[in-house]
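Incident review: delayed structure delivery

Summary: a single-chain prediction request sat in the queue longer than the usual turnaround. Root cause was a stuck worker, restarted by the on-call engineer. No data loss occurred. The affected request and its eventual output are reproduced below so the record is complete for anyone auditing the incident later.

Affected input:
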Amino acid sequence: MLTSITPLGEQGRGQRWGLTAGFLLIGHLIGGAALAAVLLGLGATVHWVAAPSDSTALGVVIVAAAVASVLDLGNRSLPGRRQVDERWLTAYRGWVYGFGFGVQLGFGFVTVINTFLFVALVIGGGLLDPVPAFVIGVGYGAVRGVMALLSGGVRTVDDLKRLHRRLDRADGFMRWAGAVVVGVGVIGAVAL
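Output delivered after worker restart:
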């Protein structure tokens, strides 16, 4: 989906990339806010039912993050291939599909999830206090939205091919970097 909305593609569909991309980003933020609402609801339910101690919650998050990192490094993927409906690209105006795609991608649960760290994010968000949980949800949507804007320089077919090659090369590195960041976080949390 990252390369479906580009200046080149929008021009071919008779749309303006800036407008579509702006609504895509707004949609990501709203989708992230919806994710935050789910995290807050999950957290309220968990604290109502069990009220885990801070050390228990931290332990659960550490285990979830460590397992997610190992699975990501093992090139495993979550089941399901649900993606946004590409027919929208020709059925609606750019701002409509930009916004709709953004909401779905920013929410996370209704599209393909490429990393097990998303599961750890949901577990952590559900165990945290409301403010950090809200920041995690909106932050997730914002990061996905900014990633979608990487296609802003695609003006030719060669630009699109270069972007695809860069994304393919970055996949393994990003999995490794995510696992390292989580590993450092786990070590830091255990040291505390």
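Verification: The radius of gyration is 18 Å.
Action items: add queue-age alerting; document worker restart procedure.
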